[in-house]
Amino acid sequence: MKKNMGNTDKMIRILAAIACFIIVLTLKPAAPYGTILRAAGLLLAATSLFSFCPLYSLLGMNTCGIKDQKKP
């Protein structure tokens, strides 16, 4: 996987994931909303951890700051 996320993007996603988990733990939303928030938090945390967003690759986006790398 080629990195396609920059540091600012990763920090925003980490903060959003933490917010999702805090909402789930403190407010204890109803079953479907709690599950959706948990899934969103996990997805945001995972994409931040790997610095790779599958949606960005589909859309051809790159916030990493690395310009076009030569392909072998």
Write a structural description.
With 72 residues, the chain is mostly helical. It has three helices and no strands. The chain has one domain. It has helices at 7-27, 31-50, 54-59. Helix 1 runs antiparallel to helix 2 (31-50). 17% of the residues are buried.
Task: Write out key terms for the chains shown.
72 residues, mainly alpha, 3 helices, 65% helix, 0% strand, elongated
Quickly describe the structure.
This protein has 72 residues and is mainly alpha-helical. It is 65% helix and 0% strand. The chain has one domain.
Order of helices and strands: HHH
Portion of residues within helices: 55-70%
Span between termini: 15 Å
**SS strand fraction:** under 5%
* Secondary structural class: mainly alpha
Q: What is the number of domains?
A: 1
Task: Please count the helical segments.
Answer: 3
Oligomer state equals single chain
Mean pLDDT score, rounded? 89
Number of strands: 0
Biggest sheet features: none
Q: Which spans have pLDDT < 50 for at least 5 consecutive residues?
A: none
Q: Roughly how many Å is the radius of gyration?
A: 15 Å
Outline type: elongated
Which helices and strands occur, and which strands form pairs?
Layout (H helix, E strand, L loop, with lengths): L6 H21 L3 H20 L3 H6 L13
Helix pairs in contact: 1-2
